[in-house]
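Teaching assistant here, posting this on the class forum so everyone can see the example we discussed in section. The complex has two components, and the goal was to see what a joint structure prediction looks like when all of them are supplied at once.
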Amino acid sequence: RKEVEQDPGPFNVPEGATVAFNCTYSNSASQSFFWYRQDCRKEPKLLMSVYSSGNEDGRFTAQLNRASQYISLLIRDSKLSDSATYLCVVNRGEYGNKLVFGAGTILRVKS
Amino acid sequence: NAGVTQTPKFQVLKTGQSMTLQCAQDMNHNSMYWYRQDPGMGLRLIYYSASEGTTDKGEVPNGYNVSRLNKREFSLRLESAAPSQTSVYFCASSQPGVSSLHFGNGTRLTVT
């Protein structure tokens, strides 16, 4: 079993739709959590950190449930430009060398 | 401000050949990393350098060596390439204690 699991998708949604991705992690000692975005054939880029209380950045909302060990990302009012792969990332420690990446969920937003 | 720069962007090697992937960052970050990304798998850490003068193995170090030449540069060497090393390689950097990484554009390596 992978330490960080994501539904690979693809999720095909129309513009304007709301879409949610989930991610589960197996290491209960994990300390911090992130969503990265990766466009096709490009490098990953940090989308947002995920805090226990939940956090929002514009159309994006991230939630963390430590008890159930899952992380979610909600995208409202999807845009064509949101089409990408979304990587769930968990940090087992305090430093960057302890990051564990999920394989990613593909989102395709269609007009 | 270029961020993290990797070279080359593409490379094709024959089995047994050697090559060095170069990485440089201009953000004055202390920590640098090399990852590989394969289809259906998350990025996996090959080696990292917490600070200038130190390097440590990550999850998949076999078949690779690294050099932290100075604070800016961190190179990855394949001494004898194997088809299993066909992958996309990403260099990244961060400040210590900060989990978010800045990635380079990647190197697509094919070993035949």
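For the discussion questions: The two ends of chain B are 36 Å apart (CA to CA). Chain B touches chain A through 25 residues (CB under 8 Å). Think about how each of these relates to the inputs above.
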